[in-house]
Automatic annotation (TrEMBL):
InterPro entries: LeuE-type. One of its GO terms (cellular component) is plasma membrane. This is Threonine/homoserine/homoserine lactone efflux protein. It is found in: Cell membrane. The chain crosses the membrane at residues 6-31, 43-63, 69-89, 110-133, 139-161, 181-198. Its main location: membrane. It comes from the Bacteria. It comes from Paraburkholderia sediminicola. It is a multi-pass membrane protein. One of its GO terms (molecular function) is amino acid transmembrane transporter activity. The keyword Iron does not apply. The lineage of its organism: Bacteria, Pseudomonadati, Pseudomonadota, Betaproteobacteria, Burkholderiales. Keywords: Cell membrane, Membrane, Transmembrane, Transmembrane helix. GO terms for biological process: cysteine export across plasma membrane. The keyword Membrane applies.
Amino acid sequence: MLSTSAIALLAIGIIVVLITPGPTNTLLAAAGLRQGVRRSLPLIAAELAGYLLSISVWGHFLAQAAHALPWLPSLLRVAAGVYIAYLAVDMWRAAVALPDSTQRASGMRTLFVATLLNPKGLLFAGTIFPAVAFAHLPAYATAMLMFACLLVPIALAWIAFGAALGSGKLTWLNPVKMQRGASIVLGVFSLSLAWAALH
């Protein structure tokens, strides 16, 4: 089992990484902006599923095979960067027609894949989660339960932020400019992934 200090450090690490802007949070905010809180709630399940799968795979991979394939993490960062760049371009284009468009916001599959490819999964598995979580089932269950309990309110906050933008409650922010700004965040994030992978 995890010690009290390990649980505290895990909780702090999870919160800090999850609240950081990135591709998944940007897509959650964009969904809240375009379709409101209630219709965006299922996306939280897609995010949770994407992270649980990503963290589990990375954790077990890093625990057993990282020394045999030192090039794989760089390759995966490049692949994630390309996908996130695609999302950035798509979001920029969607923002052009945002005020009078009936185009659907990001769906569950898009959010799941973006989360699955999100480098935060590798960060969680490689540095935030203790190594014992991938060696013993009770520690793994505890860590994942804590992760799920912290992810839900943070994801909801990102959706609510986007919805507040869309409802006009934050009148000092223009929703189209906000969505384009979010696409720029995704683009910069994509470039930073490529830079880190190639250097």
